[in-house]
Design goal:
The complex is a heterodimer.
Chain A: H1 18-21, H2 24-38, E1 63-64, H3 79-83, E2 89-95, E3 108-116, H4 125-129, E4 135-136, E5 152-153, H5 155-158
Antiparallel strand pairs in A: 1-4, 2-3, 3-5
Chain B: H1 3-38, H2 54-64, H3 75-91, E1 102-104, E2 107-109, H4 119-140, H5 144-175, H6 180-186, H7 198-211, H8 236-261, H9 276-302, H10 310-339
Antiparallel strand pairs in B: 1-2
Classes of the chains: A alpha+beta, B mainly alpha.
The complex binds iron/sulfur cluster (SF4) (2 copies).
The site of one iron/sulfur cluster has 12 residues of chain A, from helix 3.
Chain lengths: ~160, ~350
């Protein structure tokens, strides 16, 4: 019977001849191969000193964006938190007071915005869900830490600094 | 026995102990470095320049780890196991001739701790004692897996000791002596035993791989497949002792292979050097070069050859190496009969 693709190869196990059975030639061959690798150029990238370039669509740490006037774009709509499969985002909304127009772009803003980086899987759904183009995963890779608290990133770490 | 003799021996013993420990220490680094090189990596390079302080870091780490003695384990035997392993690994160096005699302060200083006339037998005795460290450790852990591993590695060591002993008999027939110093002296210049006993050397080398539990015979440990062997229950420096003893064993068996088959401290052209002290010191350097080359070979093989299956291991030991060693004895006997030595 033909198999589905007809690409099946039947392998026969040949009886090994004397030279194959004493193994030593094969071991010597193996030793010569490993010795070749011994002198090869190493592929190691010395990480903290040397960095490999990220690809175009690399998803790193989140940043909360500001608009052209330096006001925060996020309006605490909660769509990012809703779309987050890891339930990593929590936020508290607050109403903008008169005189705070230069700080927050919309009338409602997030007074607390936290992402738990231990839960986050860097899927980028929050970025896709955001109607205000307020959150992007354009940062570096997540840093290591000693305590769990250090992985809950608040607004102090997330909101991008004002560029004048 | 004068006081100078005792001082001389004490200095020699401390020096040899220190050297073998330092070499074993740096073999652990070399193993990891070379493992990296063989796999196109660079190996540990963070602790000190080129990672040279890595063994110290490992030592500090092992010393500061929590020491766990299982409640069901027999404490005395549990501690005795690794100590015995370490002890037997260290005392073999006593009979190895490190070089020719030095003439210093009007004295003739022998670079060998004890030139006993049964040197080879002593080595074999101590190597067999090494099994006790493993057995006791596995037994005292009171863990069935440790015990199984200990039985496994004990039977491996015992099986390969037979082939090892038989392969050495052919050599002893040629040399006619059991003293390692005399065997070394007979090989002066390039008159090395390897040229007369290639098959014997091959068998001896394979057996010493098995005796030191190195790949391809590292079944007692199998770190890629099992949690560990007889040392599963061990932690902290007691585990360190077991692992370290393996590296000292590697150093010692390299030294023994070098002195039995590769001329020991002899090197070509040694008769041209008139100053005996210089000649002896170059001899020591030559000996250590040979040892280090053997250690490199141990590491090289480890990162090339995959592990044997247990039945294959036993088959190789009993059905291949022992008959080969016996054939080698017969061939050597015939050679001595027809050609003289
Ligand atoms: S990247 Fe994915 S997992 Fe992380 S916060 Fe955004 S939606 Fe949640
Ligand atoms: S980041 Fe975007 S999606 Fe999330 S709450 Fe703010 S505006 Fe809404």
């Amino acid at each position: 019977m033909n198999s589905l693709t007809n690409r099946k190869k039947v392998l026969e196990s040949k009886k090994m001849n004397f030279w194959e059975r004493i193994y030593l030639p094969a071991i010597l061959h193996g030793l010569s191969i490993t010795m070749k690798h011994f002198f090869k150029k190493k592929t190691t990238i010395y990480y903290p000193e040397q960095k490999r370039e990220f690809s175009e669509n690399f998803r790193g740490l989140h940043s909360l964006k500001r608009d052209e006037n330096g006001a925060e774009r996020c309006t605490a709509c909660g769509l990012c938190a809703l779309s987050c499969p890891a339930e990593a985002i929590t936020m508290t909304a607050a109403e903008r007071k008169p005189g705070e127009e230069h700080l927050y772009r919309e009338e409602k803003y997030a007074s607390v915005y936290e992402i738990n980086m231990l839960r986050c899987i860097f899927c980028g759904f929050c970025e896709e869900a955001c109607p205000k183009a307020a959150i992007f995963l354009d940062g570096d890779i997540a840093k290591a830490g000693y305590k769990r608290d250090e992985f809950i990133f608040g607004k102090d770490k997330l909101v991008e600094p004002i560029v004048k | 026995m004068d006081i100078a003799f005792i001082i001389e021996k004490l200095i020699l013993i401390s020096a040899i102990l220190a050297i073998s420990l330092v070499i074993a220490m740096y073999t652990t680094l070399a193993e990891r470095k070379f493992a990296g090189f063989f796999q196109d990596r660079v190996g540990p390079n963070r602790a000190g320049p080129w990672g040279l302080l890595q063994p110290l870091a490992d030592g500090v780490k092992l010393f500061t780890k929590e020491e766990i003695i299982p409640t069901h384990a027999g404490t005395f035997l549990f501690v005795l196991g690794p100590s015995l392993s370490m002890f037997t690994a260290c005392i073999t160096t006593a009979v190895i001739p490190w070089g020719q005699d030095l003439f210093l302060f009007g004295r003739n200083i022998s670079l060998q701790v004890a030139d006993i006339n049964v040197g080879v037998l002593y080595v074999f005795g101590v190597v067999s004692l090494g099994v006790y460290g493993v057995m006791i450790g596995g037994w005292a852990s009171n863990n069935k897996f440790s015990l199984l591993a200990a039985v496994r590695s004990a039977s491996q060591n015992i099986s390969y000791e037979i082939a090892m002993g038989l392969s050495i008999i052919a050599l002893l027939m040629m040399t006619g002596t059991l003293s390692l110093r005399e065997i070394s002296e007979q090989q002066s210049g390039m008159n090395w035993n390897i040229f007369y006993q290639p098959l014997g050397f091959l068998i001896f080398m394979i057996c010493s791989f098995a005796e030191t539990n190195r790949t391809p015979f590292d079944l007692p440990e199998c770190e890629t497949e099992l949690v560990g062997g007889h040392h599963t229950e061990y932690s902290s420096m007691k585990l360190g002792f077991y692992l370290f003893a393996e590296y000292i064993n590697m150093f010692v068996s390299s030294a023994i292979m070098a002195s039995l088959y590769f001329g020991g401290y002899n090197y070509p052209g040694m008769h041209l050097i008139s100053n005996p002290n210089v000649a002896a010191l170059i001899g020591v350097a030559a000996f250590f070069t040979k040892i280090l080359l053997f250690i490199f070979f141990f590491i090289w093989v480890r990162w090339t050859v995959p592990r044997f299956r247990y039945d294959q291991l036993m088959k190789l030991g009993w059905k291949v190496l022992i008959p080969l060693a016996i054939i080698n004895i017969a061939l050597t006997g015939a050679g001595i009969l027809f050609f003289g030595k």
